[in-house]
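Why do we bother with a discrete structure alphabet at all? Because it lets us treat a fold like text: something you can write down, compare, and reason about line by line. To make this less abstract, here is a complete entry for Glycosyltransferase 2-like domain-containing protein. Read it the way you would read a sentence in a foreign language you are learning: slowly, and without expecting to understand everything at once.
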Amino acid sequence: MQPISLILLVHQEAGIIERAVADFHKKVISKIPGSEFIVSEDGSTDGTKDILLRIKEQYYLTLHMGDKRKGYTVAFKEALALATKDIIFFSDSDGQHDPNDFWKMYDLIGDYDMVIGWKKTRHDGLARLYLSKAFNAIISFGFSVPLHDSNCGFRLMKKEVVDFLLSENWHLRHCIGAELAIRAHRRGFRVTEVEVSHETRRFGTSRSLPVKKLPLIIVHILSGLFKLKRDNKKSLTHTDGNGRFWV
């Protein structure tokens, strides 16, 4: 079995983080010798830092701590840059994903370069469900990336994909997972999705988009997608002998 880099991105998760770390260690890390467990903490003020420092040695964690909040996208990019293994697994740390679903992805990584979780049955509010459905329709028809859950924070990637993505200038501060899927697909990497479970959030506050800021966030996302579409049109498309293409 190939060792992996497992990354958890954490912000204000004092109520769940120890349980999440223990769960991912027991069900994933402990079963793949030589793997590394990276926790990227993004400026928490609720005691999350103290918990991570206390359990660091127990679970052999590589901790990346932040004094101030950088935001999801910046923290995500910094976390990916820390990974050293050829296979990189990323998950949100809110306790809504089952670590056992990792194995569905791991079974596919020989045939694909990026495997994204598809929360077919989601435990979110109606507003978020409708926004997600509309957003994925835009991604599917606007970028020819037929995914049901392109922004899912539960995915497996080969390091060559991550290295390429880190070399790119990202446009989105929100829904960055979808942008990465689009960029990987356009580069010619093989992207697929697999159905994963999704639980109701039991601890902490949901990271759903704030209602008051929602109009500005939607404008930002649409503007970012427009820039991404423009970048793709400006680039030349190449193909290799295997039919893969990149821009």
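What the structure line is telling us, in plain words: The domain at 4-246 is CATH 3.90.550.10 (Spore Coat Polysaccharide Biosynthesis Protein SpsA; Chain A). Strands lie at 4-10, 36-41, 61-64, 87-92, 114-118, 154-158, 191-195, 238-239, 245-246.
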